[in-house]
Amino acid sequence: MKRFAILTSGGDAPGMNAAIRAATLLGVGKGAEVFGVMHGYEGLVAGELVPLLPKEVASIIRDGGTMLGSARCLAFHERPVRDEARAHLAAAGIEGLVVIGGNGSLTGMQAITDPAENTTGLKAIGLPASIDNDVGVTRLAIGVDTAINTIVDACDKISDTASAHDRTFIVEVMGRDCGYLAMTSAIASAANAVLFPEMDKSEDEIVDTVARAVITAHRREGRSKKVLVIKAEGVRITTDRLQELLDAKVKAELGHHVKTETRVTVLGHVVRGGRPSALDRQIASRLANVAVQALLSGETRMMAAWLPPIGMPEGMVKPAGDPQCSLVDIDRVLTETRAMLDGSSPFVKWRKKVFQEVEDVLAL
Ligand code: F6P
Question: In terms of domains, do 132 and 211 share one?
Answer without folding.
Answer: no
